[in-house]
Fold:
Amino acid sequence: MEHLLYVAVAGLLLVVYVVGCNSGEGTTSFPLEAPPSFWKNGYCRQETVDVSHLKDGIVRARVDGRWQQYKLVELPQGFIKWALKRRMELMQGKGAFFLGAHCGLVATYGCPRSDSRFHINNAAKGVGFLPKPEKLKEVNNLIEAAFKKDLHQRHALMHQLYQKFDLYFDKTRLISLEEFTSEDFQTQTFINQMVNPACSIVFLDMTSYELKVIAHILHPSDPKLDDYQKEVVRFANLIHSFGHGGRRKPTRKLMAVIYYIVEAYDNSPRGPHPGSRVVPTK
Structure:
């Protein structure tokens, strides 16, 4: 009798646990065994990130199956100084395009794609600085106007913006594109970020930084994008085409990905303590 009572209680507790893991604002079972459907009327919307408190420097995200709150931090000055130096050198024809400050190695986890047994993934992504909200439209207009200019004039514009970095750029976030995902094909990075937006980005150089971030995916056709998000999508597509030598602004818009900075680590092998967290300091 006692054994039967134990089994009944254990079964009830299991039911309560499963229900709790699948409730809306609570937790969800994680990792997922198969990706849910993300698409509706030709666009997708990420439901695992809440930016309603962004003006307070707060992003909420459903990570590891439960909603959590993250305080944004600024990129360390060492990272900014190194990245700007590398980008300037790149415009002068020095260094490799797919190394250094432009190319981040983005690690994600969350949900296996149908062709894999693993829910972990790593992919090289072009990552760059994002202008401040109040400067975003101005910078977009400057870039649009420069598309027909020669390479020297293009570089001069980027040099001018980088020289006034503190005036133009937001230190709490970076920007990228989701280039290869469509309704018919989804990358593993996209799937993972949609269901579990926590990421790690490593920049490979003798000066090496790791950023732990929350990824926010913006589809250009999402009717609920606000004015800021629309300008972010516009910037991500403009700067991608501009930086790759396009002679006119892109006609097809790709999804933009904002990376909100939560933690930063200095992984430089020549540093005093490789792998130490530098932001936040406590």
